[in-house]
Amino acid sequence: MNRRVYLDNNATTPLDPLVQKEMAHALSVHGNPSSIHAEGREARAFIDDARVAVGRLLQCDHRQIVFTSGGTEANNLAVLGAARANADRGRHIITSSIEHSSILNACHQLESEGFEVTYVAPTPDGIIEPKAIAQAIRPGTILITIMMANNEVGTIQPITEIGSLAKQHQILFHTDAVQALGKIPVVIDELNVDLLSVSAHKIYGPKGVGALYHRANISVMPLQRGGTHENGLRPGTENAPAIHAFGVAASILNKEGAPGLIGLRQKIEADLENTSMKVICQNAPRLPNTINFYSDSWLGESMVMAFDLEGIAVSNGSACSSGIIESSHVIRALGYNEDVSRSVIRVSLGKFNTEQDIDYFLRVVHDLENRMGSRIDGGVLE
Question: Rounded distance, CA 87 to CA 221, Å?
Answer without folding.
Answer: 11
